[in-house]
Amino acid sequence: MIKIYYKKRFISLSFDQKTNQNAETQSVNISDISDIKIKINRFIANNNIKHLNIYGTDPKRSLAFVKNAYDLIIAGGGVVKSKDGLYLFIYRRKRWDLPKGKAEKNECPETCALREVSEECYINTDKLKMHDKLGITYHMYKQKGRTVLKENHWFLMTYFGDKNSLIPQTEEDIEMCRWMNKTDISDLMNNTYPSIRDIVENHII
Fold first, then answer.
1. CA torsion angle for 68, 69, 73, 79 (degrees, to 10)?
2. What is the mean pLDDT of each successive set of 10 residues along the chain, which is 205 residues long?
3. pTM for this predicted structure
């Protein structure tokens, strides 16, 4: 199953109809892949539907269609761990977040992730070691009247520098950078974005 978030609601692209369908969950079978955009646009316009499950086609094929149907933005972000096992979070626009941002022209997601971590927390990239790719999250939002799909590639990194040397990038509305243990992170998960919560739950706590 592939998840695409829209605010606190989400779309799933899957093979199967969901058995727990109710007033807030809607499952629709797609025989014509071009119908996906119609269903998504109706979902976005209807705040009462919290979960739209689109099934009946290969989820990867459905995702490829969605990428072509909407404005696509590629981004990269980091799950950054210190030598002593703490994780780096930022506080931006009244929510806890992970350092991430849009890729520049012709920039690969891995390079983007390193650059964004460096810029948003004032970290020297020489002090960062890149590890495995953790996965990709998707979310949609409105921008200048158009619906945008953001594809964020996540990478695990280790930081070998001074934990006290971080400086938040205030021009990007970042108020603070903070190292947290797993208990701290669990306590703050109600004040973050759904896609960030997925990354945290799958790869940190």
1. -90
2. 96 81 82 91 95 92 96 98 97 97 97 98 95 96 95 98 95 96 94 96 90
3. 0.94
